[in-house]
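Escalated from tier 1: glutathione holo job.
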Amino acid sequence: MLKLHHLSNSRSQKSLWLLEELGVPYELQCHERGPDLRAPAEFKALHPLATAPLLEVDGVLYPESGAIAQYLLARHGEGRLAPAPDSPAYADYLWWMHYGIAAGMQPIMYKVRAPGHGLVGSSYDQAADVDLVAVLDYLEAALAGRAYLLGEEFSAADIQVSFVPELANALGLLGERPAIRGWLARLYARPAFERSLAVGGAYRFKVAG
Ligand SMILES: N[C@@H](CCC(=O)N[C@@H](CS)C(=O)NCC(=O)O)C(=O)O
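Tier 2 regenerated the structure:
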């Protein structure tokens, strides 16, 4: 049995949404962020790394949203939401799956952490600004003239990458970028996304249309 530990207003939204897209039976445990916006004590006690999402598979806990997506697709995907490894789209798919947790997220996490360390305006913070513009411009250019990251086909990569502009938007740094905004609106219109909100609760990172 699968059990998802979902932290409110966090990237575990991606795992919840993917579970809904796949239609796999799962149990959901919702954890609310505290007034300090951190995970609550009961969530922190679950795993030494204490980051959301956490997926429990037959009693074993797995962290890392990228690994969780990969596991769910390998185990329950049945060929859905990912191109076949011998398809021409596969390399792009793999790249986007990793961009969504690595290249795309890195500058944003610097920006998220800078205030708490007195680094706002520092050269470190300025470098993060430059990198963030680069990753967002890259995404904007990739989405121009196409419905989804891989073209006309929605895939799990769209779910993985969606958190990058959502978090940038929450920091007031998404800017105009119409291709990204149009793509997010298409993603939010998916019934599985709607269902993920219905079971997981409101999601404050959703970018307003
Ligand atoms: N590499 C991890 C990062 C997870 C992460 O940082 N999650 C944040 C929420 S978006 C978290 O759990 N923070 C714990 C806290 O704020 O106390 C992943 O992608 O799964």
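The beta strands are 2-7, 26-31, 54-57, 60-62.
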